[in-house]
Design goal:
Layout: H1 2-5, H2 9-16, H3 20-32, E1 39-43, H4 49-57, E2 62-67, H5 70-82, E3 89-93, E4 106-112, H6 121-131, E5 132-143, H7 150-171, H8 177-185, H9 189-198, E6 202-209, E7 214-220
Parallel strand pairs: 1-2, 1-4, 2-3, 4-5
Antiparallel strand pairs: 5-7, 6-7
């Protein structure tokens, strides 16, 4: 599905989120606590937006970007080449439910707008805990329905009506209808945070972003406080 929208994915994200997705990504990177020499895994990396922003913010780190979509990764590679970051990032085709990495092989893991697309989320969360060193951070950014207030109705109208139509018109594809469905099917923040705990991650923060349009979940691996 994402192969079909790869060519306009970045543009559509900027337009459909009114640019707020960039600020959300900055918050996700800040939550990782990156330092010199650290190695990070960016799951559902797509066109590499989060991975490359992490490298721009912390050029003394290295990143592995993993995604199941070959076309998304093609665009990520081109963006890395243009940014002169090809030597600092590795692109891997793979599945978040079965990561092809050794235990404790990363200092941290991040994932933006991807966990709701994983069929077996508990398994993916266990995999994140497995590949992250003890005490390393896991930061997951995901869209959600605003839970209260007058903005809830406006946001739901935007996500469930405007986004599928505008996304389909701009991209020439119907895949953006899936966005509204996947957001509606995603569990409430407290429930998802509980799933992270059950997977062996110690949740430190659940941060509500832009009136609840997204949430940032921050945890540590290894059961550390």
């Amino acid at each position: 599905m994402f192969d079909e929208i790869a060519h306009r994915y970045d543009l559509l994200n900027r337009i459909l989120s009114f640019g707020t997705d960039q600020g959300w990504r900055r918050a996700t990177i800040a939550a990782l606590g990156a330092g010199p020499g650290m190695r990070f895994l960016d799951l559902a990396t797509g066109t590499g937006d989060l991975a490359l922003r992490l490298l721009r913010t912390h050029p003394d780190t290295t990143v592995v970007g993993l995604d199941p979509s070959a076309r998304m990764l093609e665009r990520a590679r081109r963006k890395a080449e243009l940014a002169g970051a090809s030597k600092l990032v590795e692109w891997v085709i793979g599945d978040a439910e079965a990561l092809p990495f050794d235990d404790a092989s990363f200092d941290g893991v991040c994932m933006a707008f991807g966990i709701r697309n994983v069929p077996d989320r508990p398994r993916a969360l266990r995999e994140m805990a497995r590949v992250t060193r003890a005490g390393g951070r896991v930061a997951i950014l995901e869209l959600s329905d605003p839970d209260s207030g007058w903005l809830r109705s406006l946001a739901r109208l935007h996500v469930h009506r405007v986004v599928p139509r505008l996304g389909g018109w701009l991209s020439g594809a119907r895949e953006y209808r899936y966005l509204a469905e996947s957001i509606a099917a995603f569990p409430p923040p407290a429930e998802f945070a509980s799933s992270m705990g059950e997977a062996g991650l110690t949740v430190q923060q659940v941060r509500r972003l832009t009136f609840g349009a997204a949430h940032l979940y921050v945890a540590r691996s290894g059961g550390l406080p």
